[in-house]
UniProtKB/TrEMBL annotation:
Protein name, entry field: RNA-binding protein
Biased composition, class Basic and acidic residues, residue ranges: 1-12
Pfam families: DciA
Biological classification of the source: Bacteria, Bacillati, Actinomycetota, Actinomycetes, Kitasatosporales
Bias kind Low complexity: ranges: 19-28
Coiled-coil region(s): none
Record-linked PANTHER family: UPF0232 PROTEIN SCO3875
Highest taxon, organism lineage: Bacteria
Region (Disordered): 1-60, 150-175
Length: 175
């Protein structure tokens, strides 16, 4: 046997601790080669460089900003705006009209308004173009295209195939 083979046989195999030390030494050497310090001195930040942390969508933000962002991402602007108008109906149309007419539904840029008498329904039909202009000023141009006016009670609800003849709804002149 030559000397190299004898030394290999005499040297014990490295244990787990020795392997860990070798791996740490190799990692430190690689870090030094890249310019990063591991364990020893802290590296001084270079001017003009940042840590890499930048503002993104996960950062904390005020509640109203988060709600605005959610509303925009989900496409809820229109339903929320219309709901706001339904809540502020009396402010937009005035207390006199609001006492007798109330919005029921908003679909396909049409607002359905129900009045408590046929006289108020006729009056609201005359005022509809002006109300459309006011509502569009509040919501944004083109939001409300048409106001549909319904009188008291509207159409009677039909429950099942059988109906009693002559019962057409409230005793008003509408419809």
């Amino acid at each position: 046997m030559n000397e190299g083979e004898q030394q290999k046989r005499k040297a014990p195999e490295p244990s787990g601790v020795d392997l860990a030390r070798q791996a740490l030494a190799a990692a430190r050497e690689q870090a030094r080669a890249r310019g990063n310090a591991v364990g020893g001195k802290k590296r001084q930040p270079q001017p003009g460089l940042r840590s890499g942390a930048r503002a993104d969508g996960r950062d904390p933000m005020p509640l109203m900003a988060a709600l605005d962002r959610l509303r925009t991402e989900r496409g809820w602007e229109m339903p929320i705006a219309v709901a706001g108008v339904m809540e502020r109906w009396a402010d937009i149309v005035g207390p006199e009209i609001a006492a007798h007419c109330e919005p029921e539904r908003y679909e396909d840029r049409e607002l359905l308004v129900r009045c408590d008498s046929s006289a108020w329904a006729a009056q609201l039909k005359l005022l509809a173009p002006q109300l459309v202009a006011r509502l569009n000023a509040e919501l944004g141009q083109g939001t409300v295209r048409l106001i549909k006016v319904q009188g008291p009670g509207g159409r009677p609800k039909r429950y099942g195939p059988l109906r009693a003849p002559g019962s057409s709804g409230p005793g008003d002149t509408w419809g």
